[in-house]
Design goal:
8-stranded parallel β-sheet; binds phosphoenolpyruvate; binds magnesium ion; alpha/beta
């Protein structure tokens, strides 16, 4: 029940990643200060017809009401790649992860995209809602997505319904191009959220579903840390919020490193929140920054892990049982 904070008193917001509406209640039970990532893919999976605007609106509204006035970041559909959905009848591709996915699909299916956006915009009347665009790769893509949001707002208002006018529209940073161009994207997006699951896949060229390469797909690879660092600096320089919603945030050592890299907003599976809250309570920002600085100079994921382990593991021993058992 205590607020998330470091030993030196710096506030660290801990939020939940949610995939099903019922999990919103669970998130609050686990002490989430909001929903940092609401994945909407489930709405499109295993069904013959597209979800209607009304159906989606009721679900988004229920999620907002379940968490009271806490912030909720709804991500527009991230279908394609490893998230397959029959409703879209996607063409077979040699490399689906590099194919028609997420915002690319949304921009090719404007009616489906607009339907989802109108439902989100209508739900904005019931809480602190933000809209997040997945898999943004280029600036024109982000601009196009924002135009659709603006159009959805116009359509909702034209229908005589109430909604917020100034809904924040942010983007996932999960493709290396977005991290590299983060200073430019910081002028286009209202907030960033780091998707390290895909960032690792695309920066290290390792299929995120590959079992045989899972041990190489480490978010501690120095290239990933540099991408995170670049995006965080760009967000802070521009004064826009940045958070992380990749699975990395639910790892106690990684969470300490992320604080050192400048993150103050971590979103993860709800069950991990109490442990991560405890981990960050045992470190100070100053020492985390020094450790983060050292990791940026490392030449391998192994060296980063050693640096983190040496700095934090003795203090976090009770939180690290089973550490390294899962990716
Ligand atoms: C990510 O890529 O890190 C992320 C949070 O999105 P997803 O796992 O849904 O692709
Ligand atoms: Mg992703």
């Amino acid at each position: 029940g205590r607020p998330g904070a470091t030993a030196c008193g710096e506030r660290i917001a801990l939020k939940a990643n949610v995939e099903l509406p019922a999990e919103a209640i669970l998130a609050v039970d686990h002490g989430a200060e909001g929903i940092g990532l609401y994945r909407t893919e489930f709405l499109y999976i295993d069904r013959a017809t597209m979800p209607s605007e009304d159906e989606q609106y009721e679900i988004y509204r229920a999620v907002l009401e379940a968490v009271g006035n806490r912030p909720v970041t709804l991500r527009t559909f991230d279908i394609g790649g490893d998230k397959f959905a029959s409703t879209f009848q996607l063409p077979a591709e040699m490399n689906p992860a590099l194919g028609l996915r997420a915002v690319r699909l949304a921009l090719k299916e404007p009616e489906v995209f607009l339907t989802q956006l109108r439902a989100m915009v209508r739900a904005s009347a019931h809480g602190d809602l933000r809209i997040m665009i997945p898999m943004v790769t280029t600036v024109p893509e982000m601009r196009a997505a924002r135009e659709f949001v603006a159009r959805a707002v116009e359509e909702v208002r034209a229908a005589g319904r109430t909604c917020r006018q100034d809904i924040p529209v942010g983007m996932m940073i999960e493709v290396p191009s977005a991290a590299i161009m983060a200073d430019t994207f910081a002028r286009e997006a209202d907030f960033f959220s780091l998707g390290t699951n895909d960032l690792v896949q695309y920066a290290l060229a390792i299929d995120r579903t590959s079992q045989s390469l899972a041990d190489l797909a480490s978010p501690f690879d120095p290239s990933i840390l540099r991408l995170i660092h670049a995006a965080t600096r760009a967000a802070l320089a521009r004064g826009i919020p940045i958070s992380i919603c990749g699975a990395m945030a639910s790892d106690p050592l990684a969470a300490c490193l992320l604080v050192g890299l400048g993150l103050r907003d971590l979103s993860m599976e709800a069950a991990a929140i109490p442990e991560i809250k405890e981990a960050v309570r045992r470190i100070t920002v100053r020492e985390a920054e020094a450790v983060a600085e050292a990791t940026l100079g490392c030449d391998s994921a192994t060296a980063v892990t050693e640096t983190l382990t040496e700095a934090f593991a003795p203090r976090l021993a009770d939180l690290l049982s089973g550490y390294g058992d899962e990716a």
